[in-house]
């Protein structure tokens, strides 16, 4: 009686290697996307801190803001951000809308944070 050889054929081994390669490639791509998302989150969080700081500074002056635009810059987490405070009227003359637009170092818009400020007195 002839002994039958045991083991995998070359085709089976190649198919298994292809499956492993595809799984590793997908894992590397997912890890890269995760790292990119974490970096983006850090940038947007820092930009939001800049906007919140500008709006808080405006509130602390306790003055009714004038309509118009005012540029500003700030630094958070070692990055420089620029932007502008836009003050506009509302239907009620005792209130003003204030938008803090923040852009990254290259001038690309990142976010806008808005609030309403009332006239004191």
TrEMBL record:
Chain ranges of the Type II secretion system protein GspI C-terminal domain: 41-117
Processing after translation: Cleaved by prepilin peptidase.
Alphabetical UniProt keywords: Cell inner membrane, Cell membrane, Membrane, Methylation, Transmembrane, Transmembrane helix
Subcellular location: Cell inner membrane
InterPro entries: N_methyl_site, Pilin-like, T2SS_GspI_C, T2SS_protein-GspI
Keyword GTP-binding assigned: no
Pfam families reported in the protein's UniProt record: N_methyl, T2SSI
Domain of life: Bacteria
Topological category with respect to the lipid bilayer: Single-pass membrane protein
Gene3D superfamilies documented for this protein: GSPII I/J protein-like (3.30.1300.30)
Free-text function comment from the UniProt entry: Component of the type II secretion system required for the energy-dependent secretion of extracellular factors such as proteases and toxins from the periplasm.
Family: Belongs to the GSP I family.
Subunit structure and binding partners: Type II secretion is composed of four main components: the outer membrane complex, the inner membrane complex, the cytoplasmic secretion ATPase and the periplasm-spanning pseudopilus.
Name the record gives this protein: Type II secretion system protein I
Lineage, uppermost ranks: Bacteria, Pseudomonadati, Pseudomonadota, Betaproteobacteria, Burkholderiales
């Amino acid at each position: 009686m002839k002994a039958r050889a045991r083991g995998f054929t070359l085709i089976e081994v190649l198919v298994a290697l292809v499956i492993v390669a595809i799984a590793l490639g997908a894992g590397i791509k997912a890890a890269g996307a995760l790292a990119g998302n974490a970096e983006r989150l850090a940038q947007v969080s820092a930009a939001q801190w800049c906007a919140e700081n500008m709006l808080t500074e405006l509130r602390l002056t306790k003055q009714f803001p004038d309509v118009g635009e005012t540029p500003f810059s700030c630094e958070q987490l070692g990055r420089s951000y620029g932007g502008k405070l836009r003050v506009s009227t509302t239907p009620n003359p005792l209130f003003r809308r204030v938008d803090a637009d923040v852009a990254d170092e290259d001038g690309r818009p990142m976010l806008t944070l808005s609030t309403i400020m009332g006239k004191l007195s």
